[in-house]
Amino acid sequence: MRWLRAFGEVVRSGLTIEETRLEPLLALRTAAGVAIVVGSALWLASPAYAASAALGAYSAGGATFQRTWRPRKVIALAAGAGLALSTFVGYLAAGRLVTFLPLLAVWAFAAGMAWALGSTAGIVATTTVGSMLVTITLPTSVGRALEHAGVIALGGVAQAVLILLFPVRRWGAHRDALADALAAVADYARRLRHDPTAPFEPEPLMTARDAAAVTPSQARTRPPVLHGPRGLAERIAPVVAALADPDVGAPAEGPGRDRARELLAAPADVLDAAARTVRRGTPTEVSARTAEVLHVDEEHEVLEGPARQAAERLVELLCEALEIAGCGGARDKAPTPPGPPSAQFLVRPTMFRLLPVVVRAVRPELRQDSPVFRHAVRLAAVATLGYLIASRLPVDHGYWAPIASVMVMRPDFHRTYARAVARLAGTLAGVAVATGMVRALGPDAHVFGALAVVSAGLSYTLIRTGYAYSQCFTAAYVVFLLGMGGQAWDQTVPERVVLTLLGGALAMLAYVVFPAWETPRLPSRLADWLAANGRYGAAVLRSYAEPTRERRADMRRALLASREARAAWQEAYDQARQEPVRPRGLTSREAEEAEEALKGFDRAAMVMESHVPHGDSRFAPDAERLAEALEADTAQAAVDVREHRNPDWGRVEEALHAWEGAAEDRSPVLRRGAELQKRALEDLATAVSRTPLERDVGSTREEQRMRAAVAEGDGSGPAHRGA
Fold this sequence. Notes:
Layout: H1 3-14, H2 24-44, H3 47-63, H4 72-93, H5 97-113, H6 119-135, H7 142-165, H8 172-192, H9 203-212, H10 216-221, H11 229-244, H12 255-280, H13 288-293, H14 305-327, H15 355-362, H16 371-391, H17 400-408, H18 413-441, H19 445-461, H20 467-484, H21 489-513, H22 522-545, H23 549-576, H24 588-609, H25 623-642, H26 650-661, H27 668-688, H28 692-712, H29 718-721
C-alpha cells in the first residue's frame, strides 16, 4: 500500500461513524459527576479550582467508558489517583526545563509501556501525561499543588460514588461478552448447515473467557447466570463441527444430512435464546419445533456411528442450554467443587496485587523490536519535543501541542494517523461552534460551566461512535472551561487550533521516523501460530493415547495458547494490511492462503477433540508417536517459516505411514482428523514454500496488482485490503 492511498484510508477511518450501541444513561451519570464537582468548586472556591476539578471528573469519567472487566468505580478511582499524582509530581519539577523535561520524558515512557497491560491501562496512563502538562500551570505553591491534586482526586471519587449509588446495567459488559460468545456458536451452527467445513472464529469465546476472570470480591456478587454458559458454548462448538463434517459426521447427502441440518438448527435457536436470557436476565422461550427436533428416537434415528454419538452429545448439551434460557439464568448455584477457592473461578488480581502482574507483562516488551517499547519511546520523545517547541513560541498555552500528540498516539500506524486526523477535524468543528457561543453569551462563569457540563455529556454519549465526533464536544468543553476561567476566546482558540495541528503533525512524523511496522513481523506471527497449533494437535492426539484428566487439562491449555497465537496473528495481519509498507517475507495472497490452511488445521483438531475418549473408553496408544512427530515437525517448521525456508513434514509422513500399516482398528474420527491435519500442513507448505526468485517475482506482482486496483479506483478485491 502506497503512502497516498494509506493516508486516504486513514482519513476515511478517522471520520467514519462506527455502528455501536449508545449508552445515554451512562453518559448522563458521568456528566452529572462533572457537574457536581464543577459546581461545587465554583461555589466554594474559584474558577482555577473548578478547572482542576473538571479535569479530574472528566478524565476519570472517560476512563470508565473503556473496555474493561473491572468495576467502573475502581477504574474511576484509579484514574483520579493517577491524575492527582501526575499533577503534584509535575508541579514539583515545573518551573525549569532542566528538571521538568526529564520527568516528562520518564512519565510519558512509563505511560507508553502501560500498553503492555492492555488498551485501558494505556489510555488511562496517557491521560495522566496530559494532566501533568496542563494543571501544573494552575498552582502557585507546593501547598496549592497539593490542594489541586486533592481536587482532581475528588473528581474521580465523585464519579465512583455516583457509580455506586446509581448503577447502570451492573455486570452489563460481562453479560454482553458471554451473550456474544453464545450467539457466535449459534451462528457457527447456522453456517454449518450450508457449509459443513466452515471454520470457527474463537474471538468471542476468548473475550468471554477474559470477562470471566474476577477478583474474589467480584466472585461473591457475580450473577449465577455468568458461571456456566461459557463452558457450555466451548463444548458445543466442537460437537456441531463433528456432526456437520461429511467425513466423520453426517453423510454428505440423503436423510442423514437432512437430519443433521435439523439438529444444527436447534443449537442456533437454543443458544440465541440463551444469549438473550444472559443479556437481559429474563427467561426466553424456545419454539416447540426446536424441542421436537431434539428428541432422539432410538429406533428410527437415521444417524449412525460417530455422527450419532455427536448428535446424542449435542442433545445432552442443549438440554443444559434450554435450562438456562427457560429460567432466566437464575438457577441454583452448582455445588462448590473441591479445592481452594481460587481454583473455582478464573482469578483476576486486585488493584493492590497488580505489581507482579505489571512486571511480568512489561518485562518481555523491554526490547527494541517490541511495538509497545517503540511506542513508549515515541511518546516520550514527542511529549518532550512538543513541549520544548511550544515553550519557544509566542503563545500562552503551549502545552496543547504535546497534549494533542500524546492523546492521539497509539502503538500502531493506522490508529495513530486516524486519530490525528479525527482530532484535528473534531477540534476545528468544536472550537468554531463553542467560540461562536462564547462571543454571543459574553463572560459568565456559571453559564460557561453549565455549557462545559453539557459538552462533556455529549462527548461521553458519542465516545463510541467515532473519535472525531467525541473530540468535537471535547474541544467545545475545553473552550467553555477557558471561558469560565475568564480567558478571552481570541487569545486561546486560535492558539488551540494551531497547536493541535502542530501536535498532530509531530505524532505523525514520529511514526515515520521511528515506526513499528507489523508487515515484516508477519512470518514470525505465522510461525508462532503454527507452533501453537502443533502443540494443540499433539495434545489432542495424546488425549487419545492416554485419556486421563491430566491430558485433558494439557489439551485445554494448548487450545488456549493456540487461540492467543491466532489472535496475535490476526491483529498483526489486520494492521499490516493498512500499512504503507511493501510486503516482506509474505505477500497478502500467501498470508491469506497460509491463514486458511491453519484454520483448516484448527478445525481438524476441534473435530478430533469432540470425540476424545473418556478414561474408561477404548484408546489408541500408538497415537503418541504421531503426536511427537506432529509437535516436532511443526516446531521445526515454525523456525523454517521465520527464516524463509521451506517447511518439511517428514516425521509426520513417516508416523502416518507406520500408523496405516498397523493392524489395530482405530476411531474413524481419529483417522480422519489426522488426515485433515496432514492436508492442512501440506496446504501451508504450498502457501509459503517458494524459491527466492519466485518470492521476489511474487512481491513485484503483488505491488503491480495493488497499483492496478488503485488505478481502477473501484476499491474492491484483495488490493483494497492492503499488503
